[in-house]
UniProtKB/TrEMBL annotation:
<dbReference type="InterPro" id="IPR019489">
    <property type="entry name" value="Clp_ATPase_C"/>
</dbReference>
<feature type="domain" description="AAA+ ATPase">
    <location>
        <begin position="298"/>
        <end position="436"/>
    </location>
</feature>
<dbReference type="InterPro" id="IPR001270">
    <property type="entry name" value="ClpA/B"/>
</dbReference>
<feature type="transmembrane region" description="Helical">
    <location>
        <begin position="138"/>
        <end position="158"/>
    </location>
</feature>
<dbReference type="InterPro" id="IPR003593">
    <property type="entry name" value="AAA+_ATPase"/>
</dbReference>
<keyword id="KW-0143">Chaperone</keyword>
<keyword id="KW-0472">Membrane</keyword>
<dbReference type="GO" id="GO:0016887">
    <property type="term" value="F:ATP hydrolysis activity"/>
</dbReference>
<dbReference type="Pfam" id="PF07724">
    <property type="entry name" value="AAA_2"/>
</dbReference>
<dbReference type="InterPro" id="IPR003959">
    <property type="entry name" value="ATPase_AAA_core"/>
</dbReference>
<dbReference type="InterPro" id="IPR027417">
    <property type="entry name" value="P-loop_NTPase"/>
</dbReference>
<dbReference type="GO" id="GO:0034605">
    <property type="term" value="P:cellular response to heat"/>
</dbReference>
<dbReference type="Pfam" id="PF00004">
    <property type="entry name" value="AAA"/>
</dbReference>
<keyword id="KW-0812">Transmembrane</keyword>
<feature type="domain" description="AAA+ ATPase">
    <location>
        <begin position="570"/>
        <end position="708"/>
    </location>
</feature>
<dbReference type="Pfam" id="PF10431">
    <property type="entry name" value="ClpB_D2-small"/>
</dbReference>
<dbReference type="Pfam" id="PF17871">
    <property type="entry name" value="AAA_lid_9"/>
</dbReference>
């Protein structure tokens, strides 16, 4: 016992005289640097002691007028005197604070070193006097109690200093912390239901517990690291004496050297002054680049280029926060970063004279102030013919009177800004790309606190992973991280408003995505499992013969739905080869119905219309005319559709080259610089190439599928398709000509469809076998296959039924037939 107490006392004195003084000196140094170098910038105030107050001076002008000369001289003298007087007062106040900090720090340091000896003597004297007769025992008792309380307080301070930081704790020690409950809640678990053995002996029972709850160990480890980092951040935020926290406090007198900005302040607001702002995640290189450009003497303007939603505004706000705290290059530190609202500045102005007058006044103030970095969002909106501020702005940025950060998109960079000759030479372009998915996860983790407060829900880590996966796969028209953040907020709002759940789970995310896309996402329901297993039968309800095509398509859909196939390609891509009228288009329609829920969710392009030099422009648009392409527009507006490319062999070679990237990577960039996503589409290209060869094979009773390579060789030898184009498809399917038996089945299917349409009007049409056979004979054409069958049904059967209706020969809810001999 004595040995343990002796070691404790020895350890305490080691801490008191070795470790603690180092920390005290560091804190003392922080305050000394803070008061002189930052809070009151004495060196800067001394250098500019006699500078005019807020740069407020008047110019005498040309000629000589004694009265005007004396008036100007007197005004400027007063301005300098006023500046010197105010700065002198603040300098003396700063020196006073510095001396006070120096004295207080010295006094505290001496006290810290000497108080154990003083306290020991005081306590011993107090205890001795307490037992002496004739003394005032109340005062002595108070001194003893005070000494003991002081020892207890410093003991607590010592104990706190010896506490392990979260990264140094083992699992058992972590589970003793109150914040460890968040780790289990992020996994969707109720902390009160965690078995005690898991917390008391995690090395033994934790892995088994995670396996029982179907939780991956790497997910648990990630959440643990996340929460440890969160605790470190919170602990450091409470240490106001640290340099990073001290320098967040605003200073005095730093802006007095710079001019007034009365008009500019009316139409702008400062960036970087918010107390709470997202952390800078994955953008440090871009921030450093912006700072380096703005620090240059010439061409010190930045053009930020990136798609809406990649984080341009957040990046600028983070840069402004660093500038506001003086944590940038010396030439930029503590400048004012202002976002200029040009829409507000130009509102209500009716002619060019008024616009020019107001803008010149604003830009002159920014120039005279000397510490302004202007930010203009959507810069492209103000370089067009309607709102062209370039003639007014150009003289200011040409002479580097102030720095400018302009933001735009790739589309508007090419379509608007590049049309202004000479403008871009005053800017350096900084491209802001989408962050990778690992950084998106960190951004979501950094943002979910505010969403949880607003919605009173708790977002699980599994939900965050599902948000990233599904938004990346199914949302193509918005870049990361905006689409993930939007989905996160939308899911949390849904859970809070439409369910009784507290935890936001992956199934909630899948539900929101399913509602947006109208296709099933997430875990498979039993009915959907049954549909996928028997998909061949579902498709054969509309498709006659073509067993191989149905099999390959069904296989691709199963792989895509279960996410076995590659995610960076379309859901499926097929080249259908065969003669006209064998069911290629009907197969595409059946697939659109089966997978996307409606036959109408099919984008159909007749590729014979896309030939010649203008074909590519019609498809993807033109940067010259600033028009969108028909393909890219349709894909952006209908990302969850089947894309049917009819007779693709007739398309221009540039079109075929275009689809090399689409089939391989699932996206392309249009002429306006926009990324268009095809990864949620099934792409089917049809071709009549080698149709006659396939027909001859069937007539010779040669299985076309068995001689598939011969057909492909024929296509390549005749330069119809190149090998690299053919290899991009998931499958090349040979469609055989229909036999007489097949034609009868097609006829039966089409007449059955007619019967269903009439049944919706309460007419009961019963097709007979003779009618089915008659239509099959009349609807077959050696050249066009079964394609003519629909026309025969329209011209012969439907027209006859319509006439019978008009003659009242057919009654509602009374079955009727059409005899074969009536069809002539």
């Amino acid at each position: 016992m004595k040995t343990g107490l002796s070691m404790l006392i020895f350890d305490y004195f080691l801490w008191h005289y070795l470790e603690a003084p180092k920390k005290i000196l560091k804190i003392w140094g922080n305050f000394l640097r803070f008061f002189v170098g930052y809070f009151i910038p004495i060196p800067q105030l001394l250098r500019t002691l006699f500078a005019p107050w807020k740069r407020d001076v008047t110019s005498y002008g040309r000629g000589f007028d004694l009265g005007k000369f004396l008036e100007t001289f007197l005004f400027n003298l007063i301005s300098r005197f006023l500046g010197a007087a105010v700065r002198s007062i603040v300098i003396f106040f700063g020196l006073f604070l510095e001396i006070l900090a120096l004295f207080a720090g010295s006094l505290f340091f001496v006290f810290w070193l000497s108080w154990p000896f003083f306290l020991a003597g005081s306590l011993a004297s107090g205890i001795f006097l307490l037992f002496q007769p004739g003394l005032i025992k109340t005062a002595t008792l108070f001194i003893v109690i005070f000494d003991l309380a002081t020892i207890f307080a410093f003991g607590l301070l010592y104990q706190k200093s010896k506490q392990k930081a979260p990264p140094q704790m083992n699992l058992e020690e972590i589970f003793e912390q109150s914040w460890s409950e968040i780790v289990f809640k992020r996994l969707g678990l109720n902390p009160e239901q965690i078995p005690p053995d898991v917390k008391n002996e995690p090395e033994t029972f934790l892995n088994q517990f995670l396996e029982q709850n179907k939780i991956e160990k790497k997910d648990f480890s990630h959440i643990l690291e996340w929460q440890i980092a969160e605790q470190i951040y919170r602990q450091n935020s409470k240490k106001f004496w640290e340099k990073e926290n001290l320098f967040k406090i605003g200073g005095i007198g730093r802006t007095w050297l710079y001019g007034w900005t009365v008009n500019l302040d009316k139409f702008s607001y400062p960036l970087g002054e918010a107390k709470e702002s997202p952390h800078l995640i994955g953008r440090r290189q871009e921030v450093e680049t912006i700072g380096r450009i703005l620090s240059k003497t010439n061409q010190s303007n930045v053009l930020l280029v990136g798609e809406p939603g990649v984080g341009k505004n957040t990046l600028v706000k983070q840069f402004a926060r660093l500038v506001n705290q003086g944590r940038t290059a010396p030439g930029l530190a503590w400048r004012r970063v202002l976002e200029l609202d040009l829409n507000a500045a130009l509102a209500g102005l009716t002619n060019e004279g008024q616009i020019k007058e107001r803008l010149i006044r604003i830009f002159n103030e920014a120039s005279r102030a000397g510490n302004i970095i202007l930010v203009i969002n959507d810069f492209h909106n103000f370089v067009s013919s309607e709102k062209n501020i370039i003639p007014i702005l150009m003289p200011f940025i040409e002479r580097s009177f102030f720095q400018l950060i302009a933001m735009t998109t790739y589309e508007n960079l090419h379509g608007q800004i590049e049309k202004n000759p000479g403008l871009l030479k005053f800017f350096e372009k900084v491209e802001i790309k989408e962050p990778d998915l690992d950084h998106v996860l960190l951004i979501l983790e950094d943002s979910l606190g505010q969403i949880e407060k607003r919605t009173n829900s708790f977002i699980t880590y599994q939900a965050l992973k599902e948000i990233i996966k599904t938004s990346d796969q199914y949302i193509g028209d918005v870049p990361m991280p905006e689409k993930a953040l939007d989905l996160l907020e939308e899911t949390a709002i849904y859970v809070a408003g439409n369910t009784q759940d507290y935890f936001v789970l992956p199934r909630h995310v899948d539900l929101i995505i399913s509602q947006k896309t109208e296709i099933p996402v997430g875990e498979l329901a039993e009915t959907e499992k049954e549909k996928l297993i028997n998909l061949e039968e579902v498709l054969h309800q509309r498709i006659v013969n073509q067993e191989l095509a149905v099999k390959e398509i069904s296989s691709a859909m199963r792989r895509s739905r279960l996410q076995v196939a590659a995610k960076n390609r379309p859901f499926g891509s097929f080249l259908f080869l065969g003669p006209t009228g064998v069911g290629k288009t009907e197969t595409a329609k059946a697939l659109a119905q089966a997978y996307y829920g409606a036959e109408t969710r099919m984008l159909r392009f007749d590729m014979s219309e896309y030939q010649g030099v203008t074909a590519l422009e019609r498809m993807i648009g033109s940067s010259v005319t600033q028009t969108s392409g028909v393909l890219t527009t349709a894909a952006r507006e209908n990302p969850f559709s089947l894309l049917l490319l009819d007779e693709i062999e007739k398309a221009d070679l540039n079109i075929l080259n275009l689809f090399l990237q689409v089939l391989d990577e699932g996206w392309l960039t249009d002429a306006l610089g926009r990324k268009v996503n095809f990864r949620n589409m099934i792409i089917i290209a049809t071709s009549n190439a080698a149709g006659e060869l396939i027909r001859e094979m069937v007539q010779q009773k040669i299985d076309p599928d068995a001689s598939k390579q011969k057909i492909l060789d024929y296509i390549q030898q005749n330069n119809i398709f190149r090998p690299e184009f053919l290899n991009r498809f998931d499958g090349i399917v040979i469609f055989e000509p229909l036999s007489q038996e097949n034609l009868i089945k097609v006829s039966a299917l089409q007449l059955e469809n007619l019967s269903k349409r009439l049944q919706a009007q309460d007419y009961i049409f019963k097709p007979t076998n003779d009618l089915v056979t008659k239509i099959a004979q009349m609807g077959f054409d050696p050249t066009f296959g079964a394609r003519a069958m629909k026309r025969v049904i329209q011209d012969k059967v439907e027209d006859l039924i319509a006439k019978k209706m008009l003659r009242n020969e057919i009654q509602k809810k009374v079955p009727f037939e059409i005899k074969a001999e009536e069809i002539v």
